[in-house]
């Protein structure tokens, strides 16, 4: 059985650059500062479902 995945979307441009495994223990949506190749800088990326 394959793992379910969720995407991390850039809060500036909205592009979904990263995917991570879904975790049922996580109650809040994950927010990380990651590099966005479309914006060319580190921006806040939020978990999408």
Automatic annotation (TrEMBL):
Coiled-coil segments: none
Classification via Pfam families: Ribosomal_L33
Cellular component annotations (GO), alphabetically ordered: ribosome
Residues in the signal sequence: none
UniProt keyword annotations, A-Z: Ribonucleoprotein, Ribosomal protein
Protein family (similarity comment): Belongs to the bacterial ribosomal protein bL33 family.
Protein name in the entry: Large ribosomal subunit protein bL33
Source species: Lentilactobacillus fungorum
């Amino acid at each position: 059985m394959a793992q379910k995945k969720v995407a991390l979307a850039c809060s500036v441009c909205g592009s979904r650059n990263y995917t991570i495994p879904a975790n049922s223990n996580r109650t809040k949506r994950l927010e990380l500062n990651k590099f966005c190749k479309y914006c060319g800088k580190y921006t806040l990326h939020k978990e999408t479902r």
